[in-house]
Every structure is written in C-alpha cells, then in structure tokens.
Specification:
The protein is α/β, with parallel strands linked by helices and 400 residues long. It contains 12 helices and 19 strands. Strands 1, 12, 13, 14, 15, 16, 17, 18 and 19 form a 9-stranded mixed beta sheet that branches. The two termini are 35 Å apart. The model has no long low-confidence stretch (mean pLDDT 93).
C-alpha cells in the first residue's frame, strides 16, 4: 500500500486535466478489496450488492473475477434494467410495489428467468398477481428471515426492522403458500444480519461502547446461526430444490460463510471501503472510491473553503453520516458550518499549504450513495485515468 501522501500525489496527477468536483475509483484498491472479500468468503460465492456500487462497468468488472456470482439489487426497475443489460442472476433484496415492473416481469421469459423477487407476506403475492397484465411467466421468489436479536423476552430488539418472518414454522408456512399458488416458485432464502455486518465494533475513543458491540455481535451471531439452520431445514422440507441461502454483508463475510446452512454471501460496500467500514476488528480494506472538491477560497490562516461537499449518507442523522476530509490529512470541518450545500470551510494547518484550485479528497460515509452525486467515475490505474465510466445517474437512472 502507498502512503496517503503518495496516493494524493497520484490522484492529483491522474486528474490534473479534469475539473473538480469529480469522483474516482482507484482500481488497484478496488481489486485488492475484491480479493479480500473472496478470501474471507472461503469458497462460497459473493453476490454483489448493487446499491453499494451503482455503476454497471464496475459491476461487470467485479463479476468477471473468480469468486463472485450474481447481483443483489435494490429496486425492481433496477433489476429489470440490469437483466436487460445482460446480467443473468439478479436477486431483488427488498419487496416492491412496482406494478408496471411486475407486469413486465410476468410477460417476459428472459426477465422472469433472471430476476428473483423478495417476499415476506402473502399480500405481496396478491399485488404481483394483480399486476401481471395477462403475463403467465413463473415468478422466482426469495423469502426473507428476520435476523434481529431479541433479548429480555422480546422487550429489547437489536437489528433492522425488515421481515416479519422469524421462526422456522413461519418461513415454512409461507413457502407452502407460495408452492400452492400457480405462477410462483420459491428458489431462495435471505437473511441480512445488519447489526453484525453493518456496525463497526472498534469505535475510536469509545472502548466500552466497542466492547459492548462486540459482546452483542457475538451473541447475535450464535443465536442467528442456530435459528438460520433450523429455518433452512424447515424450508427445504417444503422446497427440496432450494437454489440458494444468502446471508452476510461486508462486515460479517467470514463469520456468515462459516455457517453450513448459508450457500452464498452478499457484499458490496467492501469494494469501495467508505468511512463507516473503518471501525472493524475483523477486517480492513483500502479506500477505493473518493471525491475531490476544489479549493475556491482562503478565508484566513488555517482555513480553506471548498466548493460543495454536503453529501450526507442515509441512516440515523449524525456526524458519522458525513463525508470525511481525507487528503491532505489533518483537515476538519468547522463545527458551526459542517459540510455545506454549496461551500464547505475546512480547518487545520494543512489548509495553509493549499492554493486556489487545489483539490481536497473526501471519503463518503457510505459506498454507492456517492454515485447519486456524480454522473461519472474516473478509474485510476497508477497515476493515470484509464477510463471514465458512467454511474447509474450518468446513465439517467435514479431508482430511489
């Protein structure tokens, strides 16, 4: 790995002919992160979470590497678009009410064979049937398991509020309901343990909080591994030819891959390595996706102002949802202004070495959300831009 100063010099040289703001992906870091995901998956295929990439060229790049297979998408419209673009295995990770999309799916054999939709309630099946518009193609269905950790008799819940299906009998019951319903087939089971995969366990300056998180995650992994195995047995009793059991996320790849019941791992953020994934003890990666904002003002000693930069990430609002000034190292936000819509003041001694037109490189808090701000990703190899490729936004696709 290069030093941060070396990387900054590379990125500045590579993009000197381009005007900022701009976004880049360092392909050496991207590929190294991909290799690390495969290593941690220990032989189980990694399904790429498209919401964490949001760039067709980079989805194609990673899926061409050994160890990766299939896409986990986030909307039905995106799923259909990817399938039409040649991606042959697209798992929609969230239920949809896109009636027009379901009409297309039910009327196109190629799309119906490539896309699997998420279901956790019979009412979702009713909606799909009502949207078929005469289409008779069989709809591939994945059932989702609630992974949350319940403590104190259920009075305490840790984990995302996703599927209402928690117990083996509930999943098996829905599997039977789908099997008995013409036009549908259960092919998979998904369980995303976000409270393990998406929560860092090593928070700077907060040792007690970090230890509490590690204890919680250890308990959650044990409980879920036992319950997931029971659920898979129950569903396979109804659907013996179940094609896949998906689990995990960037932060829990190796732990989830160790479960016999799981057949594939979902991950995507680990390819870009946004700032929220710095706080893990189980793995580390290389920042691959960055954006640069130009210095447009020098208000005083130890201060520069860059254009734009107010790109907060989704989730509970907080300082950890903001991008972080990354290169040069040592810059910080003005607490009275933060990251601004049109301009962002940055404080720190490195500001005195920055001139009008110089770049400050930032890391986004999350991965793919960066691509909602930029229409192009400039792919860096060494100290040159090898290619510039469109993001979803650059192709005119804003799915959410």
């Amino acid at each position: 790995m290069n030093s941060p100063a070396t990387d900054r010099a590379r990125y500045d040289r590579a993009t000197a002919h381009l005007d900022a703001p701009l976004a880049i992906v360092d392909l050496d870091a991207f590929d190294a992160n991909a290799d690390d995901l495969v290593r941690r998956a220990a032989g189980k295929p990694v399904r790429v979470a498209s919401k964490s990439v949001r760039c067709r060229a980079l989805l194609e790049r990673v899926l061409a590497r050994p160890g990766f297979a299939g896409i986990m998408s986030y909307t039905l419209a995106e799923s259909l678009w990817l399938a039409r673009s040649g991606f042959e295995d697209v798992l929609l990770a969230y239920p949809s009410t896109d009636r027009a999309g379901f009409g297309e799916l039910a009327n196109d054999a190629k799309l119906a064979g490539a896309v699997t939709v998420m279901v956790d309630d019979p009412a979702q099946l009713d909606l799909i049937d009502a949207a078929r518009d005469g289409g008779a193609e069989e709809i591939r269905v994945c059932l989702e398991l609630d992974t949350s950790l319940r403590l104190l008799g259920g009075r305490v819940r840790i984990g995302a509020r996703r599927s209402p299906l928690r117990e083996p009998a509930q999943l098996a019951g829905l599997a039977r309901a789908v099997a008995a319903r013409p036009g549908f087939r259960v092919v998979g089971l998904m369980a995303y343990e976000g409270h393990v995969a998406g929560v860092g366990d090593s928070l700077a300056g907060r040792p007690l909080r970090s230890r509490t998180i590690r204890l919680m995650q250890a308990a959650a992994r044990k409980e879920l591994a036992e319950r997931r195995a029971e659920v898979v047995r129950a569903v396979r009793a109804v659907v013996p030819d179940l094609e896949f059991v998906n689990g995990g996320g960037t932060g829990s790849v190796q732990q989830t891959a160790a479960e016999d019941a799981v057949t594939e791992i979902a991950a995507g953020s680990g390819l870009y390595m946004p700032r929220l994934f710095d706080n893990y003890t189980s793995f580390s990666g290389r920042p691959a996706a960055l954006f640069a904002q130009p210095v447009v003002r020098r208000p005083g000693v130890g201060v520069v102002t860059v254009l734009g930069g107010g790109y907060p990430a989704s989730g509970a609002a907080g300082a950890d949802r903001l991008p972080v000034p990354y290169l040069p190292q040592g810059l910080r936000y003005d607490p009275q202004e933060g990251a601004g819509e049109v301009q962002t003041p940055l404080l720190g001694s490195p500001a005195d070495d920055l001139l009008i037109g110089d770049r400050v490189w930032f890391r986004h808090a999350k991965a793919g959300e960066l691509c909602e701000r930029f229409d192009t990703l400039h792919l860096i190899e060494g100290d040159r831009v090898s290619e510039s490729v469109p993001t979803y936004r650059g192709e005119g696709r804003t799915f959410l």
